[in-house]
Amino acid sequence: MKRQTANQTLKRLAKDLASHPFLLFLAFLGTIAQVGLSIYLPILIGQVIDQVLVAGSSPVFWQIFLQMILVVIGNTLVQWGNPLLYNRLIFSYTKDLRERIIHKLHRLPIAFVDRQGSGEMVSRVTTDIEQLAAGLTMIFNQFFIGVLMILVSILAMLQIHLLMTLLVLLLTPLSMVISRFIAKRSYHLFQKQTETRGIQTQLIEESLSQQTIIQSFNAQTEFIQRLHEANANYAGYSQSAIFYSSTVNPSTRFVNALIYALLAGVGAYRIMMGSTLTIGRLVTFLNYVQQYTKPFNDISSVLAELQSALACAERVYAVLESSEVSETGKEVLTSDQVKGAISFKHVSFGYNPEKILIKDLSINIPAGSKVAIVGPTGAGKSTLINLLMRFYPINSEDILLDGRSIYDYTRASLRQQFGMVLQETWLKQGTIHDNITFGNPDASREQVIAAAKAANADFFIQQLPQGYDTKLENAGESLSVGQAQLLTIARVFLAIPKILILDEATSSIDTRTEVLVQDAFAKLMKGRTSFIIAHRLSTIQDADLILVLVDGDIVEYGNHQELMARKGKYYQMQKAAAFSSE
């Protein structure tokens, strides 16, 4: 993924926030109102003090005092309403951002998803966006108001006393220099913090989802050690980042307190020397000094939080900036066009361009054929299917469906003609009915029941508390592995695709159920081109065509009898399988 600079990330943030112009305009007006009322109040305070010192209690005094009350009430209401506006703007933005990144993930190449851990991606979509929202909240609540307050306070101080204003302007950059120095250091540490948090999230996700495997291999100690190291790294970077950022506020407050004390002394001296400066105006000026220096404290805190927010935003935008899979096909493939003849024409492919797995593969598969793909682990069996489904682009030449390049068709319409049952099951959170209709949401209950019966799943579904309306939580963990597999098989029966792909689809089913499902598959495969990735060679002896893959090459092909007669690689595999079963 392409890494962005802090300036690029800020530009992206500003552009995205500008896509909510009405809320942004209201937030702008609210900010101006808050600053204006905050600036006007010290003027009234100074006038009241001078009025008391000169004339005591008078009608003018009560008029000014009433104005002060109204300004305080108005400022309170504005300060109450502004956070509501800011939060509405920020959470509208983060809502859109989450939707965009989820949509983006579905448009990225499969290769991108394969390279990223699921926990890492979950961290970007959830934790990083939450951290970004927290940072933006501080920016609106403190940074923008603080910057405007500084500018307006300078103008107000210039109206009171030029010399003391120059002293303020000369001395206050010290606090900015301090906060800038610390912010540079903390940004790097916050980047490391978000990276290590993603690693930590990934490990936690793995430990929860793969608990059975971890315990079966007695790998708890190793996994705990890895998590301990990830926690230690995260804690170390977090502690350093928070320490550096937390030193900003007390450092700038110390500098600002010294400036305030110096100005109070200078002002008092000027009054004693007979200057036109009055006590009331000095109080007003000192109030402006506080209003001028206080935002520096807030801004310095925000700068530290901003570094963390930018680091999170950078990780989110890195996903959004990733190159999407390009759609080369323009024609929509419909079911009535598909006969099922498939040809691989001198196909070459490698997950790494420098390491070619499949080299110059050519094979013609007649329509309606039952094709078995066998070979050792890593031979390229699943890769062949990935290329056919256009999950990965081939490096050279072409793959044809009924004499037309599969790249002439849109991915969605091409994949709609395939039905896949994988060795690893996946069920979504929802009812049994919802899971079976995953690829055909408009199917009726009668169609769902018929598909479940064909897959031999109806019997156990009827035993569930609400039958087909039983809700599955946590990806169907309440079901056995075999039951979950039957539901995924029922999906294919409901979709009735033109081409079938079975990746050891009955590996998790008991022998009796397997016989029933194999019989149902035989009916479903009749007249359809079918690909069977098999590890148990006994299940594919009736295949029309058996492809034997070794290191990405088809070393043999033919039916069972032909391959056994050749006494080549397939013959050796059969003998080895027979020996291991004895």
From TrEMBL:
Q: What is its main location?
A: membrane
Q: Which Pfam families match?
A: ABC_membrane, ABC_tran
Compartmental location? Cell membrane
Question: ABC transporter domain spans which residues?
Answer: 342-576
Transmembrane stretches in the record are 21-40, 60-78, 132-156, 162-183, 254-272
Which Gene Ontology molecular function entries are recorded, alphabetically?
ATP binding
ABC transmembrane type-1 domain residues are 25-308
What keywords are assigned to this protein? ATP-binding, Membrane, Nucleotide-binding, Transmembrane, Transmembrane helix
Q: Which InterPro entries match?
A: AAA+_ATPase, ABC1_TM_dom, ABC1_TM_sf, ABC_transporter-like_ATP-bd, ABC_transporter-like_CS, P-loop_NTPase, Type_1_exporter
Q: How does it sit in the membrane?
A: Multi-pass membrane protein
PANTHER family attached to this UniProt entry: ATP-BINDING CASSETTE SUB-FAMILY B MEMBER 10, MITOCHONDRIAL, ATP-DEPENDENT PERMEASE MDL1, MITOCHONDRIAL
UniProt protein name: ABC transporter ATP-binding protein
- Origin organism is Streptococcus downii
